[in-house]
Predict the structure.
Amino acid sequence: MTIPDTTELRSIYHAFADGISRSIFRHRMTYAVLGETSELTEIIYKYSPDSMLLQASKLCFYGAGGAANWLIDANKSIPFVIDKYKTGTIEGIPIISLETFLQLPDCREYFIIIAVGHEEINKSVEAELSSYGLRYASAYFELHPRYFDLQYFDLQQLNLQEQGEFFVDAGALDGTNTRNFFRHCKQGHSYIFEPNPEQLPVIRKKLEEYGDRIELFPFAVYDQNTALHFNNSDDKSLAKVTETGNVVVEARTLDEALKDRRVTFIKMDIEGSELAALRGAQKIIKEQRPRLAVCVYHKPEDIWEIPGLLLQYHPDYQLYLRHYSITRSETVLYAV
């Protein structure tokens, strides 16, 4: 990890267009360089739209995995963590079963944050808690939309009906973000990139009503046309490039895959391959100047390498940062 020199760092810092963005950048920089997790806690409490959930008078977490460590760091006053399989303690806090929790006389006064990153397990936990009439929210699965919700980035406010919006959904997973895009742009067009063959029928079914306004590309996006090894995670949203992965997928550069197609908006959430994918979109970005919404939390160095690269392409890009969860994930960089 190479930290940029002072001149480059200042250039990136001053490209951020508001105080919130500069503050998030400072906190993430300090975390990246020094490893101070308290910097991420500051971001969560100051800027997550769901931070008020961590301030409930009676609060506990469900799931004693990695997310719970971060949530405990953000709120050390919780009395226990609920887990179906684990016992003992986590960060010095007792782990109890749901059955034990239900025996507490004040159990219905608690607000439960589900700290489970696997979507299917998360849904199962939600159903179980709901069956008991308990109050809950998920730490990982979005309560607030991202990519389209900022006023200065609101596609509904843009008078582009004649030209249309042409959206790149890189890392589409199940097509949810393309569906959200069409809510903002009734006449838009989406180029969908998803390398996992198991997800392709899911996407087609979810988006079948949009017909030929979608184009589905069964590729990962990268800085070269190649084959990549992905990890074989049960949670499809966590699939990422790794040398030891036993799943081989085809990758394409956006410049090659889209060639002369019009592009006005690029969204990327691709588990740490964002920088490589942006290098593979150099021609599109330089020539067409699309707006971008790019995740910058997968690798510590993303917080300076990604905005630095975009400023090399266009020094006049205005940059914004926003954070969308009550965990360390979901920090998004906008370029307009």
Notes: The longest strand covers residues 247-252. The mean pLDDT is 87. The domain at 151-295 is CATH 3.40.50.150 (Rossmann fold).
